Structure formats: C-alpha cells, structure tokens
TrEMBL record:
Enzyme class label: hydrolase
EC number: 3.1.2.22
Span list, region Disordered: 27-56
Organism: Serendipita indica (strain DSM 11827)
Taxonomic lineage of the native organism: Eukaryota, Fungi, Dikarya, Basidiomycota, Agaricomycotina
Claim: Iron-sulfur is one of the keywords in the record: no
Composition skew (Basic and acidic residues), residue ranges: 28-44
Keywords: Disulfide bond, Glycoprotein, Hydrolase, Signal
Similarity comment text for this entry: Belongs to the palmitoyl-protein thioesterase family.
Leader sequence segment: 1-22
Name this polypeptide is given: Palmitoyl-protein thioesterase 1
GO MF annotation terms: palmitoyl-(protein) hydrolase activity
Record field: compositional bias (Pro residues): 45-56
Length: 371
C-alpha cells in the first residue's frame, strides 16, 4: 500500500523556497571536492597493481515514521536502494519492538523519552556502529534521532538527515483515514487534552504537540519536545515551580554533528505547519498579535531557539553545516530527485564519482508513508 510507481516530477533539489528561508549552500561540497583533487596531485604514490580496497562506507541508522514499522516493504526497499548506492554499507532500522505490529503501534502509543532511550541502548550494543554513524529520520523519526544526538550520542552521529520532521512540533493533529483505527484511537484519546500528564506519557503525537495558542501549557507540560528544544517557561511565570535551566549538553552534542540536513516537503499537508521540518512555527501571541491571526510562520533563523543558540543550530549554521532542502510533493513522498542526492552526499563515505553516477535518471518505486 505504501509503494507506488510514480513519474518523477522535475525537481530542482536545492531550490530555495519562496519565503526565502532556505539559503542553499554547496561550498562545503566544492571544498571537499577540491581537497580531494589537491590531495591526489600533491602526493602521488606509485600506482600499485591492485589498489587496496576502499574502507567500507560509514554505517547508517534509519528511524521510520508514524504509521510505518521498521521492516515494512517500503523501509526494506529504501534500505536496499541505499545498499545499491553505497556498496557494503551496514544499515540498522531502529525499532521499539522486533514484532512489526507492536513497532507500528509504538509510533502512536508510548513514552517517547523511553523510546529514545531504548533505541540508544540498542545502538550502543551494535558493534558495527561503534565508530559512529550517519542517521536518517523519516518524519517523527527525525526528531527522535535528534533527541538521540542531544541526549546520548554515544556512539556519535556524523550526518543527521531528517525528512519532513516536526522539529518545532505540530499545531494540529494529523487527520485519520476511516480505516486507520490506531490513528482514530490516538485522536480520540487526545481529545481529552494533549497536555494532560497521561497524554504526555502515552500519546506519541501529544509529546511533540506545540500549541502556539497556548504556549504556556506547552512549556510547562511538554515532556519531550520542549525538553529537546531547550524551551523553558519564563522565570517569573510560575513561582511554585522549580526554575528549569537549559541543558548545555544538548547544544554541545547537536553542534558536534558534521552536518545537519533537513528536508521539507513543499506540498506537505500532514505536518501543520510544514515549516516545522525546518524549525519554523506559527507566530506566538508574544511575537506579534497580528501575525498570530494571520497564521504567520516564524522561520528558523528568527526563532529565539536559533538566535540564542539553545540547541546548537546557530553554531552549525555559522559553520556551514546546516542544510535546508526542499523536496517536491506531499509529506514523505520520497522521489528519486529528493532522496538520492542527499543520500549520495551525506550517507556513507563521500565519493564524488559515485554521486554523478547515481544521478543518472531512472524511476524507481517511491516510498509513501502515511505520516
Ligand atoms: C553551487 O555550485 C555550482 C557549481 O559549482 C555553482 O554554479 C553555484 O553558484 C553554487 N551555489 C552556491 C549557492 O554556492
Ligand atoms: C543534560 O542532558 C544530559 C544528557 O541527557 C544529562 O546527562 C544531564 O543530566 C542533563 N543536565 C541537566 C542539568 O539536566
């Protein structure tokens, strides 16, 4: 059900979006390329009859999205395509349960903080990953992997890639297909309050629900997203509460990435607002009342979280390690044009010759996820 063969639309991958949020960069790529060329000229060894085999590509961890599970047909196909691109790569598909139905259910119901800790434990126990790895998060899997980086990062992530993730949360719950009972059950349960202590421990989407209309409730009650975003209530907000402080480890760990790549789907109607994929959010009442009514989007670089560098985003950006990418289409429509150049460049070891080869046009089946 999640796999369709669709004609590949013409996509300008590093196209910047109309709002001007994205400043695509490729100087790093050029520099790397030049360095490689330079190295080969400067220091030419005698050509051996049999060149030593290349080291295996850096391993990869993938975390699937909501409605999906770690070994679905779509996930397995995506993993195979990456293995074709990066021969010999080790790939681990993160999961909450080895049992596919239970893993799928855990995308809706469970305690995200515990889920991330559980995956961190798995990762730490896999020998292939001990030297570090790249990570790809689909949709909510993206902010979960970011939480891994901020809180654990042992072994460390080198390149973090997220597709259509909800880094600045969601302001609305996803709609449900009539037959999707897990979705409907979660939605019904959320009706009694996304910020109730129960919802914040049991409903996954509630744990990254960021209600811009009631930001105080979010800051006080969000057990997951407000924490990994280092968003804390204003000091004099509530005198009874123990004052919270921002966790510097989170910023330090995220800033230690080689690259942080965030893809946004330009037709995304599932994530509200879709700019959350790039740390955008609706304006808060404190930003400007008029903007709130109009549903204005505060882009990443205008967020306090960025400006005051609460989680290391600004450090990454100023070091040219932050990439905002547009993928054409609806939520998680992973076209060839969308994922291939990203995976060629930021997954495994960088091999510029292979990058050009991989961009030979072809139309494979696409991965479509519900969320
Ligand atoms: C990216 O690289 C291309 C080809 O080298 C170059 O023409 C273009 O100006 C570069 N873009 C940016 C934003 O650096
Ligand atoms: C910050 O996060 C790290 C990693 O999760 C944790 O070990 C540490 O206790 C946290 N520090 C504070 C002040 O909460």
């Amino acid at each position: 059900m999640r796999i369709f063969g669709l004609p590949a639309p013409l996509v300008a991958l590093f196209m910047s979006c109309a709002s001007g949020i994205a400043a695509p960069r490729n100087s790093t790529l050029e520099e790397e390329h030049n360095t490689q060329i330079k190295a080969s000229h400067d220091n030419k060894p005698p050509v051996p009859p049999n060149p030593p085999p290349l080291p295996p590509p850096r391993p990869l961890v993938i975390w699937h999205g909501l409605g999906d599970q770690y070994a679905s047909a779509g996930m397995l196909e995506f993993i195979e395509l990456i293995k074709e691109m990066h021969e010999g790569i080790f790939i681990y598909s993160a999961r909450i349960s080895d049992e596919p139905n239970a893993d799928q259910k855990a995308g809706w119901f469970g305690n995200v903080n515990e889920q991330v800790a559980q995956v961190a434990e798995q990762i730490a126990a896999i020998p292939e990953l001990e030297g570090g790895f790249d990570a790809i998060g689909f949709s909510q899997g993206g902010q979960f992997l970011r939480a891994y980086v901020e809180r654990f990062n042992s072994p460390p992530v080198r390149n973090l890639i997220t597709f259509g993730s909800q880094h600045m949360g969601i302001s609305d719950l996803p709609g449900c297909k009539p037959t999707d009972w897990l979705c409907r059950a979660a939605r019904a349960a959320a009706a009694s309050g996304v910020y109730s202590p129960w919802a914040q421990k049991n409903l996954v989407q509630a744990q990254y629900f960021r209600d811009h209309r009631h930001i105080g409730s979010y800051l006080h009650s969000s057990t997951f997203l407000a924490d990994i975003n280092n968003e804390i209530p204003e000091e004099d907000d509530d005198e009874d509460e123990e004052p919270r402080i921002r966790n510097l480890t989170y910023a330090f760990n995220l800033a230690s990435l080689d690259n942080f790549v965030m893809a946004l789907f330009d037709q995304d109607q599932t994530v509200v607002p879709k700019e959350s994929a790039w740390f955008g959010s609706y304006a808060l009442p404190t930003d400007d009342d008029n903007d709130v009514d109009k549903g204005a989007i505060i882009p990443m670089r205008k967020q306090r979280l960025y400006k005051e560098d609460w989680i290391g985003l600004r450090t990454l950006d100023e070091a040219d390690k932050l990439f905002l990418i547009v993928c054409q289409g609806e939520h998680m429509r992973l076209t060839d044009e969308c994922w291939r150049p990203i995976v060629a460049r930021w997954v495994g070891s960088i091999d510029m010759d292979k990058v050009t080869e991989a961009s030979v046009p072809q139309i494979p089946s696409l991965l479509i996820q519900d969320w």
